[in-house]
């Protein structure tokens, strides 16, 4: 991957300079996908293949089959955020597969980046809300009984989506396309000429995403789940219980998937000071982005599918669906047999009267 690829391969970075030699551009046009791009493609593809059916199942049951409770509302909106996001992944997959060539136009460049940020951070915020809700529901039952209502949950859901829109909104303004020697890229155009404005805007947006999209959610989850674990221990529940390991899996998945993304995003802010770490960033930025994307297909598994309640409800719903389907098939078969019998009887009567 050369310098041209590095400046445009990630969904969030931008160009510091357009001073490329003709030789570099020709090498770019003839280059093939490297190891980093192939690994990114695998991560994106897995997130899409696993995320679409996984989140669709959660949406189907929490949105259409089960009673609307506070918990199902959280899981429904979490699944919606992840589902919309993974639906747009084929655009990223195509972008990487075509060696970072964007043939879809400026509006899809803006919309794709906005949808990605909107749903990635809506997902993070709903994970945070779920951790707070679990803590309040289990540790403060009186407060929970009074204020933990579907009406209040809908208000919180609206607030979460609004915050996600505010974080994703700048992509609609800054995201643009640029054609260089028949190679179109989708990038953040923070300013045409003023380098100080470019750096300032990039720093502000990066730190906002880090603080509100990672640091505060991570601290919230750690505090809530730590207090939950302490209460579980006080109640003489074994730390090897499924509840404990579920909590640990949730926190670890969030840390593993999101930490590299934000660390490399912050590290990228220093590339205008030194070229020393360019090769590390060249590999780290797309891989960390793919890992963050992968979290969207893990959420249904970690937050819903390993829950005993969900498993019981899922089996019950599937059993009811199969029973209903078999009843329909049986009814159709019976009606078909009755119709055939009736037709045969009528034919016999007709022949007797002739």
Automatic annotation (TrEMBL):
Q: Cite the entry's keywords alphabetically.
A: Cell membrane, Disulfide bond, G-protein coupled receptor, Glycoprotein, Membrane, Receptor, Transducer, Transmembrane, Transmembrane helix
PROSITE patterns from the entry?
A: G_PROTEIN_RECEP_F1_1 (PS00237), G_PROTEIN_RECEP_F1_2 (PS50262)
Segments traversing the membrane: 38-61, 73-93, 113-132, 153-174, 210-232, 244-267, 287-306
Its Gene Ontology molecular function terms? adipokinetic hormone binding; adipokinetic hormone receptor activity; complement receptor activity; G protein-coupled receptor activity
Q: Name one GO biological process term.
A: phospholipase C-activating G protein-coupled receptor signaling pathway
The keyword Oxidoreductase is annotated on this UniProt entry: no
Which Gene Ontology cellular component terms are annotated? nucleoplasm; plasma membrane
* Keyword flag Cell membrane: yes
Q: Which domain of life is it from?
A: Eukaryota
Concerning InterPro entries, the annotation shows: CML2, Formyl_rcpt-rel, GPCR_Rhodpsn, GPCR_Rhodpsn_7TM
What are the subcellular locations of this protein? Answer: Cell membrane
Q: Topology with regard to the membrane?
A: Multi-pass membrane protein
Q: What is its main location?
A: membrane
The UniProt record lists the G-protein coupled receptors family 1 profile domain at 54-303
The record's family statement is: Belongs to the G-protein coupled receptor 1 family. Belongs to the chemokine-like receptor (CMKLR) family.
- What name does UniProt use for this protein? Chemerin-like receptor 2
Its gene is CMKLR2
